[in-house]
Every structure is written in structure tokens, then in C-alpha cells.
Amino acid sequence: MDELPKASFIDKEVIFEPIKVDIVVPKQDKTIVRINILKTYERVLESGYLSAEMLRRVADWHFFEGDLDVAEKWYTELFCLNSDLDIEFYYRYSVSLKSVGQREKANEMMAIFENKKG
Predict the structure, then answer these.
(1) pLDDT score recorded for residue 27
(2) Residue 108 and residue 2: Cα distance in Å, rounded?
(3) Could you tell me if 82 and 52 are in contact, meaning their C-beta atoms sit under 8 angstroms apart?
(4) pTM of the complete model
């Protein structure tokens, strides 16, 4: 019983054709780099390069995010650089000043806002 049973085969010529396989390399997604431009502006401002446009954007960003302490810092820089601003900046600066406890200066800015508003 050590022998395996013999199988009978039909004599038939079998031709195997090679199968053509296309290798498809998936396209790699482009690497996406997200840059928070306002954080970049803030780093540039902190390095000493002051631009009224960057100051406005960074101050407004912090103001609308509710980070009034930091907004006050950048509005102060903005007003030191340029005091002829649109009226909404006087209002935002006033609110930011109140948040850091500078009520007198905040009241001044609100008075200017009210006068310019008409």
C-alpha cells in the first residue's frame, strides 16, 4: 500500500498561451501642503517687518476668532503705523482694548468711531 494509485490520462496536447498582464501603477496623489497664511503673516510681523495690510489681516483674524488680547496687540501696531483707517477698525480696536483693561483708550477709540460714523 505504499504505492499511489495510477491515474489514467487522456492523451491530449494542451497548449498554454501566455496571458498578457498590464501592470497599472496607481497615480500618486500630489502632495498637498497647507499653509496658514495668517500664521505666516504673524511670524513675519513678529520678525519686525510691518505692513499695514498684514497688520490688518492678522488683527482682524484674531478679532473674529475671539482672541482679543492678541488682536489688541496687532491693532496697536496698526494704529502706530497708520492712524487714517476705515471706521470699523476704530470699533474693533476699541473692543480689543476693553478686553485687556484699557478702558480709557477704548473709550477714545469708540468716540472716534462714533464721530466718523456720523
Answers:
(1) 79
(2) 109
(3) yes
(4) 0.70
